[in-house]
Design goal:
The structure is a single chain. The protein has 360 residues and is mainly alpha-helical. The protein is 62% helix and 0% strand. Among the domains are: 85 residues, no CATH class; 83 residues, no CATH class. The protein is globular and about 60 Å long.
Length: 360
């Protein structure tokens, strides 16, 4: 197979995406061997430890990588081959409001429109995006995250675009940041919830559970127990009588959040110990049922969400051990001895959040 010329920026993007997908940093020769074994065990092909070392760790590498090497790395992160990867990069890098402006110009557009509250231009911009590819939309979401994370003039934007389809579905839902690094980020979801209720409508129910769940989680982990209680109450007490029976319409991620976070809510309301323990046993059965014959992404959702809940609960440690043992195959596939690590150390390896793969 021939070799292919890659500019440094593209090389760095590919390497970072491989590292994010692998779940561990490539800093040493043993790390290179680990990645080599991971690629081989995934059925993608063989790249030697030496080749990985030369590509990832040798600063002045005069050897261009073979196309077959790059194809394997690209398959690992979800592309057919290096040709498709480069094509996607070119589409992403070339996109803008006028379809001919750089990412820097896109950042400037966002900053200017938001600071000056030029919402008409942004509204037209988001409307154009509806017909663009998934890769293009994801690129814009990353640009928006970078702009908003470094500015505090976000509230007027969140209020104005709380009902905007692109902002809701791509920026606030698909592009959700579990770390809440954007100023006034919680306010964005309060605006998002403004006209949403716990109805029997499946679409609205998804939104209600999603937004209240992520606000509940953020408040709980930041020890804001008053806010956590308010959102927990909306999820588990102040709902329609047959609310639980309608949860089967939820997609897996909001469903797992809803079921898992109830354990924290039981702690908040000082539920009887026997009730908490019974619910913990139910969670283990729930996890077992939902990972059986599930794909890799679904297993990541269950492990990361429920694992975090157990980690920050008052339960006996045995519950964490039982839960962790359900994912031995996942750790084996990643060449990790799960028994040697605590859940807190394993969570990054099975991370389902899309934004954290690009902005960890």
């Amino acid at each position: 197979m021939g070799k292919i010329v890659f500019n440094n920026t593209d090389v760095n993007k590919l390497k970072q995406q491989v590292i994010n997908k692998a779940g561990f940093a490539i800093r040493t020769k043993p790390d290179c061997l680990r990645l080599s074994n991971l690629l081989l065990s995934a059925g993608l092909g063989y790249i030697s430890e030496t080749t990985i070392y030369r590509l990832f760790l040798k600063e002045k590498n005069i050897h261009s990588p073979y196309k077959s090497t790059l194809d394997i790395l690209c398959k690992f992160i979800g592309y057919y081959d290096i040709v498709e990867y480069i094509k996607t990069l070119n589409e992403t890098n070339n996109y803008s409001f006028n379809k001919n402006v750089s990412d820097i110009a896109l950042d400037n557009l966002l900053v200017s429109c938001i600071k000056n509250q030029n919402f008409k231009t942004l509204s037209e911009y988001f409307e154009i995006l509806e017909s663009e590819s998934k890769a293009m939309k994801e690129c814009v979401v990353l640009n928006m995250f970078d702009v908003f994370a470094s500015n505090d003039f976000t509230i007027p934007f969140f209020k104005e675009f709380s009902d905007n389809k692109f902002v809701r579905e791509w920026f606030l839902e698909s592009g959700h940041d579990p770390k809440f690094r954007i100023p006034n980020y919680n306010q964005a979801y309060l605006f998002y919830l403004k006209n949403v209720s716990s109805t029997k409508d499946s679409f609205e129910l998804q939104q209600y559970v999603f937004a209240n769940s992520i606000l509940f989680r953020s408040s709980f982990l930041n020890n804001d127990y008053v806010s956590a209680f308010n959102h927990g109450y909306k999820l588990y007490d102040n709902v329609l009588p047959d609310f639980d029976s309608n949860l089967n319409v939820l997609q897996l991620f909001p469903l797992v959040r809803y079921v898992s976070y109830k354990l924290w809510y039981l702690h908040l309301v000082n539920a009887p110990k026997v009730q908490v323990l019974d619910y913990a046993e139910y969670l283990l059965e729930f996890a077992k049922l939902n990972i059986e014959n599930a794909d890799s992404f679904s297993r990541k959702i269950v492990f990361n969400t429920l694992g975090e809940v157990l980690l920050h609960s008052k339960l006996p440690f045995k519950f964490q051990l039982k839960f962790k043992n359900m994912f031995e195959k996942d750790f084996h596939d990643l060449k990790i001895e799960g028994s040697k690590y605590q859940i807190i150390e394993l969570l990054p390896y099975l991370q389902p959040n899309g934004l954290l793969n690009h902005r960890p």
